[in-house]
Amino acid sequence: MVSIRSGSVVILVLLAVSCLASVANGEEKTIKKKKVRGQTVCTQGWECVWWSVYCCNQTISDYFQVYQFEQLFAKRNTPIAHAVGFWDYQSFITAAALYEPLGFGTTGGKLMGQKEMAAFLGHVASKTSCGYGVATGGPLAWGLCYNREMSPSQSYCDESWKYKYPCSPGAEYYGRGALPIYWNFNYGAAGEALKADLLNHPEYIEQNATLAFQAAIWRWMTPIKKNQPSAHDIFVGNWKPTKNDTLSKRGPTFGSTMNVLYGELTCGQGDIDPMNNIVSHYLYFLDLLGIGREDAGPNEELSCAEQKAFNPSTAPTASSS
Q1: Total domains, the chain
Q2: Which of 11, 141, 199, 283 could staple 188 via S-S, CB 3.0–4.6 A?
Q3: Is 148 strand, coil or helix?
Q4: pLDDT tens for residues 43-68?
Q5: In this structure, what DSSP letter does residue 43 have?
Q6: Which tens digit of pLDDT belongs to each residue from 295-308?
Q7: What is the domain extent for residue 35?
Q8: Which of 107, 134, 160 marks a domain boundary?
């Protein structure tokens, strides 16, 4: 599991918010370096506040800026969208600062960082889109249209978790956020990581865009189970597949990020629309960021159509969405 130092979340968020004005004015960040046990570690002001090897690399605001966020989510504030005025670049970059010292957007060089932004935000756009085939601007321009499930079919309370993450009276654990979180146990786990009482107040996710993005990045960065990779580790190549993974057609590919996040809902079902929609957003975002979809790899690396699920669905799991 990705761990966050106790008490650091509030401090980091305050630092990030206070320094965003400097970012907007184009002021340069100061990179500080030191050696720890023979290894160079760095900080970069508000955006990479903990000493980390990842903070010696370019940070997200170096290569992903406001105008690019606006291009990727061009239709999110149109009158027919369902979360007008909620999502913005400031909320995203403030949330991202919490995880940049852990490698989010800071693993490898600029190209890998850009590709991870396209991948992560491609997932986000697909899961929050209200686009359709003939929508103005095209179906891929409507990400971040929602910040919550509009017509929940249930309260998503799993009583089998009543001792660790008991459902709070009156609370509804339907999908909320940029990578929607469902079920009491997922709200409980996210709340522990982010030092927010999401188990008793799941509504916080739909009231605070920074927290909503933090929860999404937490989900991207955090393994669902022990001895499994996170979507981040899969994408940046930190994960080494086992023989069983290879036999299950899982590898360090974009396709496997869908597998670990959504399981059988998206993967192992052949060439289905939910999978293709996520892939289409990723490729579209690569184009918009000026990378080109040829850097995404061959189709078999983009797809999870024939992969066996990391977590087969026998009961609600953290991949349920």
Answers
A1: 2
A2: 199
A3: strand
A4: 999 999 999 999 999 999 999 999 99
A5: E
A6: 899 999 999 999 99
A7: 8-107
A8: 107
